[in-house]
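CO-FOLDING WORKSHEET

Operator: S.A.
Ligand of interest: zinc ion
Run index: 398
Mode: holo prediction, single chain
Checklist:
[x] sequence pasted
[x] SMILES validated
[ ] output reviewed
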Amino acid sequence: MHKESLTAVCKGAVLTSVRSALDPAVHRRVLRPTAKVLPGHARAHNRSLLLQVLFRDGPHSRADLARASGLTRVTVSDLISDLLQEGLVAELGTRNETRVGKPATLVGLDQEAALIVSLDLSSDRGPTGAVVDLSGEVQTRQSRRWDGRSRERALEPLLAFARDLIDTATKPILGVGVGTPGVVDPDGVVLDAPNLGWSHFPLAARLSAGLDLPVHVANDANAAALAEHSFGGAGDAALLAVMVGQGVGAGLLLDGALVGGHRYAAGEIGHVVVDERGPQCACGLVGCLETALAVPLLRERLEGRSPAETRRLLAAAGRRLGIALAPVVSTLNLGEVVLNGPPDLLDGPLIQAAERTVRQRTLPLIAEHLDLRLSALGADAVLLGAAVLVLSGQLGVA
Ligand SMILES: [Zn+2]
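OUTPUT RECEIVED:
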C-alpha cells in the first residue's frame, strides 16, 4: 500500500471506537462526529462511515455494510474496491448464509495494513515513543532523555527519535501522534507549555515537515481521555481523565466529544486552589491542587515517613483532589473520573479519600452513579491517545 493513498483517506469527519476490530466480543462506542460534512466531502465521509463500521463491528459482507451504513450497495462496492486496492481492508472468505443464494464474501479492516508512531512528552525526563498497530496494540516502546528543552533544541532530538521509531516499522506509517504537556490548539500549535519552555510553537507543522508524514498533536491529558474512551473500557458517560505527574491536568469528554474550552485549556484543574493556607505554587497562586498532588512534591513529602504517616498524607492529598473534583463532577454530572499516574501513590488511601470527599460534597443522585477509578492503561495512556489522534485524523475512526 502506498503511503500517499493512506494519507489521502478522509480527514476526521467521524470518530468511532476501535479495539481489535476483528474481535466482536470487545465493546466499542462511537465518538460523536465533530466536523460538519460538506457536500464536496461526501465521498470521504461515506468512506469513513464504512471504515467506522468495520472498526467497530468487525467484518461484514457488502450487503450488510450497506444496511449498517445506510449507503447504497453500488456506493459500498465502489468504496470497498478502493479500500481493497489501498490495502486498508481485505477479503476474508465467504460466510454461509441460511438464506438462498450465493455465499457472501466478508470484508474486514486489515489491522496490519499500517502502523502509527506515538510520542508521549509528559515526562520531564524525556519523551517516550511507540509503534502502535491499528487496533491499539503497542508493538515497540522506547524512551529518550531530554538534553535541553528549549523548543529549538527539543525539535531535532524529537525528529531523530521519531525517525528511529519509523525505521523499526515493518509497514507504512499512517501518521504520527503526539501527546504533550501544555495548551495545544486544533492545528497542533503548542500555545503554552512552561515545563518544555514552548510558547506558540507549531509542533505538528514542524514535525510534519521534518518527517514528511501527517502529524497530530494534542494535550497529554486530552490524549489520555481519548485513550480511555477508545481503549480503556470507558462507558458512554461524561468522562474526566486526570493525569497526575510532574503537574496535574485533565481531559474531558462530554457526549462523546473532547471538550477544548474557550482557549483550548479545558481540564486545567491543577491550578485550582484547594488549600488557601497551602504551599506556594510555581504559577504564583497559593495552595493549588498541583502543590498537593504533583508526583515529585508528593514523593518528597512521603520520604522517610512511617506507614501510618504515609497513609495519612496520601489521604490528605486525596481529599484535596476530591475538593477540586466535586464541583466539576456535580456541574457536568460526570459518570467517570479516571486517574492516570503512579499506582503506588494513587491507589489506596488517596483515591479512597478523593471518592469520599466527592460524595460528601455532591448530591447522592450524582455521586452514587460516579465511577472514580485508576486507569487500566497504566503508562501507555498518552501513547495510545496519540494513536487515537492519528486514527481519527487520518481514517475518521478511533
Ligand atoms: Zn498553581
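REVIEW:
Residues 307-332 form the longest helix (26 residues).
The pocket of zinc ion is lined by residues 271, 281, 283, 285, 288, 290 (CB under 6 Å).
[x] output reviewed
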